[in-house]
Amino acid sequence: MSILLSTLNARYAHTALGLRYLKANMGALQSRTELMEFVIGADVTVLAEKILSRKPRILGLSVYIWNVEETTKLVSLIKAVSPDTIIILGGPEVSHETEDQPVARMADYVIRGWGEMTLPTLCRQILDGKAPSTKVHQGIQPAMTDITLPYDLYTDEDIAHRTLYVEASRGCPFRCEFCLSSLDKTAWAFDTDLFLDEMEKLYRRGARNFKFVDRTFNLNIKRSLQIIRFFLKKLEDAPMDPVFAHFELVPDHLPDALKEAILKFPEGSLQLEIGVQSFNTDVQNLISRKQDNEKSEKNIRWLREHTHAHMHADLIVGLPGENIDSFAKGFNRLVDIDPHEIQVGILKRLRGTPVLRHIEAYRLVFDSSAPYTILSTADIGFQDMQRMKRFARFWDLIANSGRFIKTLPFILKDQPFERFMALSDWIYRKTNAMHGIALERLASLITEWLSENGEELAIARTIVGADFIPRAERGKKGEDNKHPANMALIRQNRRKNSE
After folding, report:
1. Residue 360, exposed/middle/buried by CB under 10 A (0-12, 13-18, 19+)?
2. DSSP-derived 3-state class of residue 180
């Protein structure tokens, strides 16, 4: 083994699709290439020990926003104890502003962008004693037909215990400035028949959970239908052994043919991630986001009312030009549309994204440490941004967790944002914490808040009790701590959260 490709995933359940693409395309060097995945939060010295125990001549590391700080420590440590180990970096975090980053300065080489063709060429040069003097290499983008698909490199353990990421296409034709895919200018599709052949092989090996990372799955409806029908056929042939598929959809592009196909998925077999991000048309124009808000709302409502798809919709706090009142209107509109989950995301400074052009005009201030979260803007001051971060955290704990489904309408009533913000502020005043709040404590806090905001204490206890069974009473009749009527949705939430 001469080459070791590694990364730090956000959690064990995640698999590094990028590493598998790299190994699949190493050509004659594939037999001399090994994969080794870790998880953030581990002791970096232990990771270095495990890596160096394999005695790699070349170490390739994929760097992302969630692992850059630990990867920087890892590179520093390895270079200190094994300076002859050649380190090559790749990944989105080091593909932009490369020279400014400590991790890039410590490494021997950096590949920006696509790596499938450039990495094996660079490794061959190094192994042949012809190492180039140029440190930073722009990745060569090959034709999609020249890329070897990596799905054979998913192990049996991956299939049994981890999320399988797959992609039918790369890139995105849209220009949303907060997203790195806005740099792609277009989307490139893999050969659909070849891709589905690979999905068939995974299915025969036991794979049942497929998460598509395509940024615009429903861009080409003909291709989307071909893929969806593949999964529908599996569901039809083996209803007692169902597959689960996760797609990201553009909300304002849902023609009748796609609706008819989505209608056929049974409960628990389809999740749709829908990026709304903002309903403010001025903000949308400012960040080059093209979205028909009326059509988006109509489509999401139709999906919610007529299909069994589990819908996860996204909003972003901190976009230039968006203030709290504007965000609140969008949030309330989305709550009224009623997707199963609303992910309240906080804007992050992704290197290379065009949104950075607004830093001066809209006074965008980002944390200098990863994940570079927005701290304040011209429209949302630091204190209010902190409140919004707590809002997002408590929304996950209470609304998105599936633990308080029956309680949530009593919290939100006819002013969802305003009342949940009041609850969020109140919980933080009571606990001075965003993390480490036990479930029973959270249920007690919600009960107390309801009783202070219009509900009689006995009624508040009944409301929360419909969702929550105290620890002392669990197990008497095999009860779970969630209301039985909610279990189908909770299973979907668990599946999603495991990803």
Report:
1. exposed
2. helix
- Distance (Å, whole) CA 348 – CA 335: 24
Pair 29, 58: CB distance under 8 Å: no
CA dist., res. 240 & res. 477, Å (int): 27
Give CA–CA dist 389/344, Å, rounded.
9
Does the reported pTM lie above 0.85?
yes
* Structural element, H or E, at residue 342: strand 341-346
Distance between CA atoms of 115 and 160, rounded to whole angstroms?
28
Closest C-alpha among 205, 188, 142, 167 to residue 18: 167
**How do residues 129-145 score in pLDDT, each as one tens digit?**
999 999 999 999 999 99
For residues 488 and 269, give the distance between their C-alpha atoms in angstroms, rounded to a whole number.
Answer: 11
Q: What are the pLDDT digits (tens) for 84-99?
A: 999 999 999 999 999 9
| Percent of residues, the chain, with pLDDT higher than 90 | 91
Query: Which of 310, 372, 363 has its CA nearest to residue 338?
Result: 310
For 19-72, the pLDDT digits (tens) are 999 999 999 999 999 999 999 999 999 999 999 999 999 999 999 999 999 999
Decide: 424 and 433 in contact? Cβ < 8 Å: no
Q: Are 466 and 483 in contact (CB under 8 A)?
A: yes
Confidence at residue 493, expressed as pLDDT on a 0 to 100 scale: 42
187, 213 Cβ separation under 8 angstroms: no
